[in-house]
Amino acid sequence: MKKIYIVGGNGFARECYLYISKISAINLEIRFAGFLGHGGYGHTVDYMELQKFYKGEVSEHQFQSDEYVIIGAGYPPLRKKIYNDLKQMGVNFYTLKHNSNICNEVKFGEANIFIATNICSHNIKVGNCNLFNGQVLVGHDVSVGDFNFFGPRVSILGEVKIGNHNQIGTNSVLLPHVKIGNNNKIAPLSALYKGCKDNCYMLGNPALKVGDIDAS
Hints:
By secondary structure, this protein is of the alpha/beta class. It is built from two helices and 25 strands. Helix 1 links the parallel strand 1 and strand 2.
């Protein structure tokens, strides 16, 4: 049996609880074990009606071999911070895939989250700690790095290459063969035809660079 803890608390952590509860109702080998705070982020107040499941700070918990973690923070820099701290602790990560159509050929790392009704085609590579936040379409031969956030209804078409630490806004479209570097923000409803390098704020259809992102 896998005992699943959700680390870090806000509305997104409660969403993760909802999805893992649905999964455990079908798969008896999965059981929700509780919420753990991280560095003061994720107190009982953050879990509202679910505060009874709060088990304390992650730094005070001794993880066992049958215990796994979902990162319950949606904000990308915070997700990365929690991931790196837990990685140093040697914990097991659980990839949350609820009600998503993911081809068996998809190769992905750890600590990824696929919120409901994502579609992933064949020959896709996904790194670590990415968040696909609902109804994201990923076409064939796509490569995704680490710590990326994809808003709801993003469409990633064939042979797109995406680096690390990018935030792709809701309803954006990445056209075939687009290449995106690192630490970029793509505004909602944008359409990328050619992509971008690093530290760019992209907006519009076609998406154009309208600012720079702080690389720190």
